[in-house]
Amino acid sequence: MSEEPALPGPEQMRISDADREQVAQVLHAAMSEGRITINELEERLTTVYAAKTVGDLKPVTADLPQHARSAIEPATSRALGLPDDRIGGHPGSGASIAVLSGASRKGSWVVPPQHNSFAFWGGAELDLRHARFAEKHSTITAVAIMGGIDIIVPDDINVDVTGIGFMGAFELEDRAGTPAAPPTAPTVKITGLAFWGGVVVKRKPRKKDVPEIEG
Fold first, then answer.
1. Which residue ranges make up each domain of the chain?
2. Long-range pairs, 46-55, Cβ under 8 A, ≥24
3. What CA–CA distance (Å, rounded) separates 45 from 25?
4. Is the pLDDT of residue 130 over 70?
């Protein structure tokens, strides 16, 4: 019997344009921090845009801090079809209510499949940058009446904003400017209503500091 061809290892897996762009942004950040020179940036970008596999990308960030090297990890996970390690856990609170007051959900909390946020003459904040997700798909229904709700999402999850603003604003602010997250990442749909108020979804880079634990 003929032997079956060996499967390629993680470093031989093909990468996407999104993977190249993610590493390119890491290099631009390293140059702005003084870690590499403009000439080194140009040389490394040439390598990045010519890269075809995960292994081709690794040497480009090998001498940079760990958080920069981790930019290649999503490419490896996507190539292998691995599930996102942030999915799973006991669901956290299903509601955040601010009536003439404030409410927040942040730090290490588990986003349930359905979370309802309501603000009336008050303000609520949901920060998902250190959150886990009980399921791959979650829905946040945000209703702000003469109040405000801020929802911060990291740039490595997928977000779909479909809410309505009536004499108010229901909007997405992309402050990350990075490519869309891979299909294996958690997906959050944010819907609801802003009436004489505002619901603002802010897409930001994931925090690198130690998360605070919500009590």
1. 10-80, 95-204
2. 48/20, 48/23, 48/24, 49/20, 49/24, 51/15, 51/20, 52/14, 52/15, 53/11, 53/12, 53/13, 53/14, 53/15, 54/10, 54/11, 54/12, 54/13, 54/15, 54/19, 54/79, 55/11, 55/12
3. 10
4. yes
Among left, alpha and beta (phi > 0; psi -120 to 50; other), residue 64 is: beta
pTM above 0.90, yes or no: no
Distance CA 113, CA 90 (A): 11
Number of helices and strands in the chain (H, E): 5, 13
The pLDDT mean for the chain works out to: 82
215: pLDDT strictly greater than 50:
no
Cβ atoms of 71 and 48 closer than 8 Å: no
Residue 5 clears pLDDT 70, i.e. is over it: no
User: What is the residue type of 100?
Assistant: L
Residue type, 37: T
What is the mean pLDDT of the segment spanning 52-56?
83
